[in-house]
Amino acid sequence: MQAKNLRQSRQALVRAPPRDNNAPATLLGAAEKRMKLGYFTMPVHPPARSYVETLKEDREAFILADRLGYSEGYCGEHLTDAAENIPNSLMFIATLLGVTSQMKVGTAVVNLPHTHPVVVASNAAMLDNLFEGRFILGIGAGVLRSDAEALGLLDADRNAMFAEAIDHILALWAGTAPIDLKGKYWTISTVKTLWPEVGIGDVVKPYQKPHPPIAGTATDPDSKGLIALGRRGWWPISSHFLHLNCLKSQWANYAKGCVEGGHKPDRANWRVARSIFVAEDDKVARAYGGDDPDSPYRFYMSQLTAKLKKARRMIAFKSHPDMPDEDITFDYIFDNIVIRGSVNRVVDRILALHEQVGDFGTLLYCGKDWADPQLGRKSMELMAEKVMPAVNAALGKSVAAE
């Protein structure tokens, strides 16, 4: 069924009828499980805001997502960015223990070159046990150059460090004492100090076997990192600021890597992040979602475009590679990158996205600063309670009709 036909019927689907528990299980599965809803935040806040308050707000967003039934939630980390206020994603995730109950929590990402592999392996394994398997380890090499400079790694081959670090982490989880790992950047050993009688010489192991799910984010349209993720059977997360024309090539690279690594490419493992704002009416959605000069979405995109422009990485926003940088205006971004509107309009945009890129397992709602807490919360609520039921009902009807 074409997206146009799906969207023509969505007005009735938005006002979803009560669940029929006697409906065939296959149809229930198609309608309710086709696309999951998750949460992601970098986060990005105006630096002038109270640090204490922004941390409280970030935690509140995760707690709300858990209560609303979001399937998973991720946060990023940076050491030297006043706007992106979480320096340690593992530590932040730990604060959600006891205040979330069903949502899986993850890092997006732990910057592996910045920390010794033994520290990451031990801390991640402890979190996996504390959450009893509700933990996802997102990993990356670190893209913020000021973080690298602060750590004395500005001229280091951080991609090579990343590759060695994750190999060490996996070996630490899979192996037994004594530890004896050799590498270019880290040599890890407990051979001289091994004392098994009292438990000295090994690291704690994860709750999930053989280890927690591992995910990686991709911000480049033709990311070769996705091929590497696929080879190892890890999960891909496509960035929220990629133009939707870039997403097909990302999936193609990931699928290529899966085949090379002997894994079945499973679209259920693909996470697609999007900047989304849902309101009761389109006028409010357009203003808060970017048109108003004080919009948190405008602030977010002003931060992002400034950083990407300096790094000469504006291609992610582009509908085609030859598009001039100067054509990437706020109007263009809010019309093409951000999904904003009333419930019906957001449903239409998500169905159009699905029609263009095909199936993916989880749509990640990208959190923004709550300049207006009521609107910020309401958007997350509408997304979970109105938008996704309508999207999945439309997708379920499409499956049933095939």
Q: Could you please describe the fold and organization of this structure?
A:
This protein is an alpha/beta fold and 402 residues long. The chain has one domain (3-108, 213-401): Luciferase-like domain (TIM Barrel, Alpha-Beta Barrel). Helix content is 44%, strand content 12%. The protein has 15 helices and 13 strands. The chain has an eight-stranded parallel β-barrel with strand order 1-2-3-5-8-9-10-13, surrounded by five helices. The protein is globular and about 70 Å long. The relative contact order is 0.15.
Examine the secondary-structure arrangement and name the CATH architecture: Alpha-Beta Barrel
Strand order of the largest sheet: 1-2-3-5-8-9-10-13
Radius of gyration: 22 Å
- The CATH top-level class label: Alpha Beta
Number of strands: 13
Topology record:
Blueprint: H1 3-8, H2 10-14, H3 25-32, E1 36-41, H4 51-68, E2 72-75, H5 89-94, E3 104-107, E4 110-111, H6 117-130, E5 135-140, H7 145-150, H8 158-174, E6 180-181, E7 188-189, E8 214-218, H9 225-232, E9 235-238, H10 247-260, E10 271-274, E11 276-278, H11 282-291, H12 296-310, H13 330-336, E12 339-341, H14 343-357, E13 362-366, H15 373-401
Helix pairs in contact: 3-15, 4-15, 6-8, 9-10, 11-12, 14-15
